[in-house]
Structure formats: C-alpha cells, structure tokens
Design brief:
With 416 residues, the protein is mainly β. It has one helix at residues 2-18, and strands at residues 44-47, 81-86, 92-96, 102-105, 113-114, 132-136, 142-146, 152-156, 162-167, 173-177, 183-192, 195-203, 211-215, 229-230, 234-235, 241-246, 255-258, 266-267, 281-284, 288-289, 295-302, 308-315, 323-329, 331-336, 342-346, 349-353, 361-362, 373-379, 385-390, 400-404, 412-415. The protein has a five-stranded antiparallel sheet with strand order 1-9-8-7-6, with no helix packed on it. Strands 14, 15, 16, 17 and 18 form a five-stranded antiparallel sheet that branches. β25 and β26 (349-353) form a beta hairpin. The longest helix has 17 residues, at 2-18.
Amino acid sequence: MRKNSIKIFTLMLLVIILQACNLPWQEVLTPEPDTTTPEIPTETTTKAPSEVSTSTAPSTPSTTPTEEPDISLPVFTDPVIFDLAMFTSTDGWALTQDNDRLLRTEDGGQTWLDATPADLHPLPADVTALWIEPFFLDQDIAWFSSNTLGNELYYTEDGGLTWRITPIPFERARYFFLDVNLGYALVDLGAGAGSHYVAIYRTEDSGATWMEVFTHEPGVMKSLRESGSKGGITFLDRNHGWIGGTYPMTDYFYLHFTEDGGATWALETDISLPAEFNGSWLEVRQPIFVSDTVGYLPVRALAPDNNSYILVYRTDNSGQTWVFQNSVQDGQVLDFYSLDEGWLAASTELFQTNDAGINWNPVTIATGPVGEIFLHVDFVDDQHGWAIATPDDETWEPRKVYRTTDGGMNWTQLVP
C-alpha cells in the first residue's frame, strides 16, 4: 500500500507542477459559466429500472438481513464496488467501477440494488462510463450529476426509486448539501499554469435552481487563490465553508475558508505542523464535522523519509482553530462517527480511537481481510462497519467488500 500510495501522491504533485507549462485557461474543457440568473428549469421525473413492472410503490423493506430485500429496484449481481456510504446498520449507497452505477442496499450489503436512473444506460457509443459525482444526505436522499453526459442534476428522496431531473448551468461539479434544500457546488473550470480554476454555486430549493456566488476569471485576482489543486468543498452552515487541496510547495497547508457563503475566501494560516514533519508535501483533505462545533481535519503528508502519514487535527470551535492530535503512518482513510470515536485505515491495519484521535489503538483482526490492504472504511457506530480491501498492493484488484458487527475483530466478505 505504501508503494502505491506514495506513487499516487507524488504523481498528483507532479501533475500540479507540470501544469505550469500550460497557459491559463488553455485546458478548460467547459464554457465559462453563465453568471446570469438561470431561468426556472423544467423538471422531469424518471424511475430507476424495475423488475416488477406492475408495481407503483416499493414493497415493505426487509427487517433482517436474511429476508428478501426490497425488489422494487433490480438486484445488481456481482458488483465491483469502488466506494460506499452507509447510514445505518442496514442502509447505504455504493458506486461501482468508474462511478458508472449507483447502488443501494437495505440489508447491510448482502444484496445491492441498482438505483441508477433507467435513462442513463445504455451509454452513448463515445462514452465509456458515467463518472457519477454524488452527494448522499442520508439513506434516502441523494443528488448526482454525470461528468460525461452534460448538464443535468438527478435528485431522489426515496432511495433511488424515482429521480427528478433538472438542467444545471454548469458541468463537472462536486456537491455538498447541509439539508434537503441548501447546497453548494464546486465547479471545475479547468487547469493551467499551475492553477486550478473553479466556480461556486448555491441552491436553496434542492437543486432545482442555482445561483453563482463565486467564479475565477482570466486575469482577475480573486480571494480564493487560483494556484494549487482544489479537492472538494464542505460547509458547516450557510456561511462557513472550507476548500482543501494541494500546493507544489513543502509545509504548505492548502486550506481556504469562507465566512460569507462562498463569496470571499481566505487562506488558513494558523495551522501548525509538528517539527518531525518539516519538509513534507501536504494534501489537506475536507473537514469532517460531527457536531456544530467539533470537527476533524485529515492531512496527508509525504515526509522527507518517503513515508506517508495521516495527520489528524481537531476543532472544538467550529473551525476557527485546528489542533494537532496525532499521526498514523500509511494512513489512508479517516472516519469519525461521534464526537470522540473514530476509525482509521492504514495499509493492512485498522485503528480505533475513543479519545478524539489522541491515541489510535490497533484492532486485532481475527477473520476477514487479514493481511489485505484497506482502501476504504465506513463505520456507523462502534460495532457496525464496512471495508473495501484488496490483496494486491499494485493493481488493487480484486476489490472485496467486508462487513463487521463486532467492532472490527471479525469480518464477513460480502462482495465478490
């Protein structure tokens, strides 16, 4: 895992540096977003594919993993799952390879149902995958757009049984929603000359209409710096948000914040780097908030010794300050499910904390992904969790999905 992770992290930094050979805006693949107020779009509704053509409503969901799942959505057999987001011990979402299919489970991952809108497949001849960019608010409410099929946003309130389709005034966006109505989109406008240009939109009606609140423009200096690669967007409330990323300079914390809903931005300058990590390349990931005041900031560091680490920071004042807690070598994925309790995957090891990330205790794995590389972990409490793991550090294939119900000691392989 370490070899593969370091290669990927180093390659990402080299890409940013090599972008300096290009002229600004030269590689922009999408037109400059229309800053005029969009007209109210015409909405349409589509249904996900169904195996029961005469049914107009979902059947009663299963109450135990051994019962038959809700078959209002067709079962997707033998999925290759690349990402998942669980919300209860039974309900959650997943994405298949190349983000081409959106799946849903109601029995803890034993069965996966195809929630992809029926109109998206088969794909056009010149398209190889949908590259779905989703945001999951809970087990029922989700939004997504396709990075290959243009300007439409899909929205469901019933776990993918039906979808509302709305035209949107942008492409290639990452989303963050605070509730069923209020959300933000970070739109990729392209890269050039070592910079990454973006626009930010806000919706207050579940994505039916969008208003531009920020955009980069050629030759115009903006508060959100053009330089560096921007990895995502997170909001704590209507006004306070963060954008993390990477910058081709050692010891550089690339984390911008806004206090006016995304109109203006400033660079965080008071985050301290422990002395033992001086000279590291840093990738600041998106904050994880577990309450109105408490949040965690994972920072990936490629240290001078060529080892990779996850640095864990915590805030107790809604992101005004971030305090270093601890680090874990080869850390990949950080997941907190309460104020002080969380999990961290590092190569073949799994760690748990009960004191806000100050101490990370290794979990002894008795059965399941013993010796396998953890690519993703997602826990909903201290007992119920899921992991994507692989035995091959080079190819990351095959990707296996596991579930634990005893706090990570024993795991059951679900897929394949």
